[in-house]
Amino acid sequence: MITTIALAAALVACNNEIQSDGTGQQAASGDPATKVPISFAALGGLPQQMQDDLIDHFPNYDITFSALNLNGLKGHAIDDTFPDLVLDVDHLATPNEIWEQVRLDLTDFIHAQEMDLNLFDPGLVEGVNAHDNEEGHIYQLPLSRTFSALYYNKNVFDAMKIRYPEDGMTWKDVAELNKQFAGTSYIGFTPYTSDITLLNMMDEYGLHFLDATTDLSTVLSPQWTELATLFRDLIAPAAASQVTEGNNPSAARSLFAYSGSIAMAVGDGIDLLSEGAKGGQNLDLVSFPTVDEGTKLGPFQLSTTLYISSTSKHAKEAFRMIAYLLSEERQLEYAKAGIGPVIRTPDTMEQFGAAVTGTSGKNVQAFFKNASRPSPEASAYENVALQVAVQQIPGLANPNVSVDDFLKQLNGMINSAVQDSKANRS
Does 3.40.190.10 match the CATH number of domain 36-146+302-351? Predict the structure, then answer.
């Protein structure tokens, strides 16, 4: 959880009406034999607005869209059946052993299109290309970013006569607010309305699950103990609340957006505003809480990234699609639709979410209050550890298990999973 590069080359003008058929394959126009075939695979599927835009603006391309799941390209043949263009997030769909074989340096395409990489947020392009890249190649470009914030329900705060949260709060401030709902019919806080709350907090602490050099778990470090203790302080009260589903991650979103039983929640993007409006809740948001007061140093905002495979026979055409999606015009439209821009211009920030129901009069600018901490180098097996950890984190709320014991158990499980992954890879 995410505006832009200067628009490059001349794109083919669209004079024909082309529509998506809803299955990922566009309706054809003209002679298919003369079209350039491009396969575009995206983790979770490419947003329909982007599919429609590409179809409309590239009538001479025969674009096939497909959705990828976690590790969706694992075991894929490295040949001309591999997708020409891929949208991924931190290689969740493209395992490292595949990525190392299909990555293609985009530098020549960038120069040919005269793209201005300075329009990106400082360090963003370098950050998404940092892993295993001593040569400094540009293998992928960011398309969108996940902006996170602390949401709160004004109805709940009004009922309890408690002052609303404010921009610039720390996690300790949130924990103190959370305590004021103890013993009431409300849950003070839940992190489970976001899939990446823990990752965001790890970023703020500068932590990974694994040491980048040894691939061993780091969760027994003092900083991890501090983070885990804070996380327990935030989630444990919900387990003891009067709301029976209080510590059920799968129920958190509906409880917050529709039932009005949760006071504060973490949200990625502006979808929660829309859902809250549908659920009759008066939701608003403030900046993502920080570790230290006054730092304004938030998490590294998770980016979706675009890459072209080395097996593509139409890399030049595929890059024109990248250039179009990253044009200032398109990125502004996507920002209005609530898709996080990768370059912060005055227009994309001011108009972020303007076309989304429920955002009028809300503190949407809270998404842009914090600066991002640079993401430290990560192990090639970091996602293996992540998949183990996310299944175990709710167990931190168990009062019968100490934080130290929890982390010791997690440490063993992570190291075991990494060893298994290495064995399977060899």
Answer: yes
